[in-house]
Write a sequence for this structure.
């Protein structure tokens, strides 16, 4: 799946920003494993893999869907043509999340979608910045943030909002953020103290109680 490769690339970009050392190690391990599998698979299987990956007919169909999505958005750019209307017309939805939302829900729906994803992602970044480096909390926040980045990348190639794991990822980020804020309030702090903001003396709120 090309969409999965896009998701992997976006995830590695995010990991490279958060922890270049880990990104380098992970990328090196993947390249070594991929090389070993490619050699073991043999020339015939490698050629078959390349052929399946190419699939020009899929690219053509996605481009046609995108064109139809743009036309649907142009038909009603503010509120869209209505949720499910594109599917009723074409028997499928646009395989690009942002364009699908633009077509069915217009600019209003698109702004809501982008705002929602940006807020959740900012919570994940905040969790990563407040946790001490290489602690269990930092690892958990990094994992959730990388998963969020992967799903954002995946949304370029498929209708990612239908993927239940994305909802779970965003719910976990929101839950961890809420637990952190609640733990800080219970310690009598109206805002994150300097020690927490700088990543020092951090403890998970779940453990404080």
């Amino acid at each position: 799946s090309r969409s999965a490769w896009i998701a992997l690339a976006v995830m590695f970009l995010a990991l490279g920003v958060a922890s270049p050392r880990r990104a380098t190690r992970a990328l090196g391990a993947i390249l070594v494993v991929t090389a070993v599998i490619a050699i073991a698979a043999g020339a015939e299987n490698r050629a078959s893999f390349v052929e399946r990956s190419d699939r020009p007919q899929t690219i053509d169909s996605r481009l046609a869907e995108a064109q139809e999505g743009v036309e649907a958005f142009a038909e009603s750019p503010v509120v869209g043509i209505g949720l499910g209307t594109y599917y009723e017309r074409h028997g499928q939805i646009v395989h690009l999340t942002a364009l699908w939302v633009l077509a069915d829900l217009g600019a209003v729906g698109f702004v809501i979608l982008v705002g929602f994803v940006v807020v959740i992602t900012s919570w994940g970044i905040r969790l990563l910045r407040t946790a001490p480096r290489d602690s269990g909390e930092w690892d958990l926040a990094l994992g959730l943030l990388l998963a969020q980045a992967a799903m954002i990348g995946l949304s370029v190639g498929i209708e990612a909002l239908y993927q239940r794991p994305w909802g779970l990822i965003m719910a976990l980020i929101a839950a961890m953020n809420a637990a952190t804020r609640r733990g800080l309030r219970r310690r009598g702090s109206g805002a994150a103290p300097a020690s927490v903001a700088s990543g020092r003396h951090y403890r998970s709120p779940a453990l404080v109680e």
Summary: The longest helix spans residues 20-54. The radius of gyration is 21 Å.
